[in-house]
Amino acid sequence: MNQPQLDAQYSALSDVGCQRNENQDRWGVDADQWLFMVADGVGGSRDGALAAQTMVDVLPRYVAHHLPMDQRDQPDAAERLGRAVSELSDDLHAKAQDDARYAGANSTLVTALMAGSRLLVAHLGDSRAYLRRDQQLQRLTRDHTLVQALVDAHQVDPEDTGQHRARSVVTKYMGMKPPARADASTLDLRAGDRILLCSDGLHGVVKEPGLAQILDANADPGYACAALIAAAREAGGPDNITALVINIAHG
Predict the structure, then answer these.
(1) Which parts of the sequence belong to the PPM-type phosphatase domain (predicted)?
(2) Which CATH superfamily is domain 6-250 in?
(3) Region 95-118 average pLDDT
């Protein structure tokens, strides 16, 4: 039986926040490939904004190479998306060895690609992807951070991560010393699903019940993004804030 054709409506917003002078977050959409991206310059890196902008500008070419449109129904499609992210990270590191502008330029990256009735997700770092479905908010990514590693080792309670001093220490990121190994996964989509991609400037200050409540109160992606940004700013906005919301519908 043929899968139902799905379509998407989307919007994104980025904000410098309340305590930063520069916005090092970036978002991007390649509508021809149904490819969505959020990147966040790694704190302390020399030029996170340059790295993040490069990620959203260049990733579509890597995805087109590793995952041509006629091969997106293959069982290894998510693995190929992850390979595209990993290769871009390794190439960014190599570029930094020859181009002083990129020396120390690092960022996170989370990307989602609609492939028919499936969503492919890949990431490096702590920018996240969420699914809102049937009144449940499901995190689709696992943070590559020191504090997440401590949670996994049962050394830190998940409820205490927001204030932990290691919360923002990323263990994987774009431009890291090769080989980079992005995490990748596949999700079967349904009409009515909503996808949120965001930087830690949002999920780090607005807890998941708050994210779910805002999504439910704002059916339009643009309004949802604006409300998410406003909530993060109201919570102090200590970091740059980026939200990209995708509504999945029947084609």
Answers:
(1) 9-248
(2) PPM-type phosphatase domain (3.60.40.10)
(3) 94
